[in-house]
Amino acid sequence: MSRQDFYYLQLAQQLLGHSSYELISMKADASELWFQSSHRKDKSIVRIVRRNFKSAVEQQKDVLYALQRAENVRKQRGKSTLTLNTIYFADFDPFYTEQSLESAPSPSKVNSYVEQLTAEKASAYEPLFERLGLTLESADNCSSEEEAQRIEQWKHKIVLFVQKKQSEEQQIAGYGKPIFTYIFLALQILMFLFLEWKSSTQNTLTLIQYGAKYNPLIMEGEWWRFFTPIILHIGLLHLLMNSVALYYLGTLVERIYGSGRFVFIYIFAGFAGSLGSFIWNTSISAGASGAIFGCFGALLFIARTNPRFFFRTMGSSFIVIIVINLIFGFVAPNVDNAGHIGGLVGGFLAASIVSLPKQKKLYIQIPAFICTLLLVGSLLFLWIS
Known about the structure:
Layout: H1 3-17, E1 21-26, E2 32-37, E3 44-50, H2 56-76, E4 82-89, H3 98-102, E5 110-117, H4 125-131, H5 144-173, H6 179-198, H7 204-209, H8 215-219, H9 236-257, H10 259-280, H11 289-305, H12 307-313, H13 316-331, H14 337-354, H15 362-384
Parallel strand pairs: 3-4, 4-5
Antiparallel strand pairs: 1-2, 2-3
């Protein structure tokens, strides 16, 4: 084992256990790890590499590779700029000059800083650890046997940490089966066929008769009309669009949250969408759009609580899709955007209340529950009174 292994693995395991850093990527042999700052305003990445380069050209290629990856991370996370700090741990210097590293072409929105540490630069270790908010344990205070023991301990800690994170992500991605997604899908198709058989899904009187959101009747006490519009659709195109969206979004949310939580999120988001439509839209409305936007809201909750999993699996493009759908709702005719926004907010609040499976967070869940009660209660009171 090299002395560089001692400092590299020490740095790696300290970064893994530090609350200010979050692991976003790692090579299988742990020879390269990428960390991002957990502070929202800090747009920096720390990349540590244990590798010996034979030539400056080889290292220069690695710098360029890292810059392109950092640019992809920046785009994926929707950051305007990003700072990449690369720290190389090597047994010897390749044939290069500091200028050749610093002058490497960089994507315009990624600022790159490179630091090369070798055994001859032992004085640089302490400033590095201090800069990152870590504590250095010097190898000079350890015997060869103790040094080797430390290296094995740190390796073991790194492997266990990564295995734990992978297990948590696997649990998030595959907790439940999409049973109720298919039930809701079948219900809206059956109701569409039933209304078409009775008259037409575009017949206003038929829609009102079978539960569409209709403000005058809600004001008269037919509160169930906040829920029944979820399974009603106006025309075949409306049904097809919402069925496709429910199939893809619903299955994803139900797999992540489990069936019980999904039912609560979906129904509450549907109610919140109907409530938003009731307050800001006097027209007759129906459709699962509010509940489907609630699925978007539930996934945004994951972006808030599990950003690494969210951005690695869905990315900022998912947020772009939500924005596009909302913009489309504002510019397209006959789209109940109040219901969409209500559903989006409702889905986020519902997800905050139930949280993710096996991730009970009462300090989030209880305030979310209280805020939701106050919000719904005040909106209904102010509108009806």
